[in-house]
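Exercise 4. Each item below gives a protein and its sequence. For each, produce the structure-token representation.

Item: TIGR02391 family protein (Winogradskyella bathintestinalis).
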Amino acid sequence: MSKSEIQAKIEYQKTIGEANDGGFQPIRFTRVKYKQSPTAHIDIRKFQRGYDDEGEDVFFPTKLGFRFPEREFKKVLEKYSLLPTTYVHPKIIEKSFKLLEKQEYESAVLQAFKTIEISIRERINAEPDEVGIRLIRKAFHSENGPLTDFDLPKSEREAFAHYISGAFGFYKNPCSHRDVELDFVEAFERIVVASDLLKKIEPECPF
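Answer:
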């Protein structure tokens, strides 16, 4: 099959990663969606460095590679990826990572954001009925919030208050009130957001 025939079958493709970047034979990870396929595929392939007619670098795909559905690629990541711990808040690691390893993704996200709520409550001595977004908006009120960073301009203080309450409402609340189907990547993305927020709440925590 010619190159033009192959390209005619492709709806879109995007390079999502590369090993041996800049070498003569890099390996590229490409997300490919074929017109006749309901799901995207991941193509892992060796490329060969060459030159075009003007002497510029060009990389040509070789036959050394393989391709499989993206959903299978995610399964491989879930099973064999090492969870990065160097940049995640240690409290989040303690509460969520074992749940991730057991594939309890919804619970892992819930525990990550619950950790945020507990930290805020302890730091401002909140009343028992101050919970969830109400608690967060009190703690980070742009004018008088006890955890607000008043070194920031008012617009940024307001933006952070919206950011933390929005993330809490969008990621934590659904897991509290209904069943939410998540895979490893989706859960981990939410947990990283929770970690980032907790670092802002507890800036004294060493990493």
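Check: The chain has a mean pLDDT of 83.
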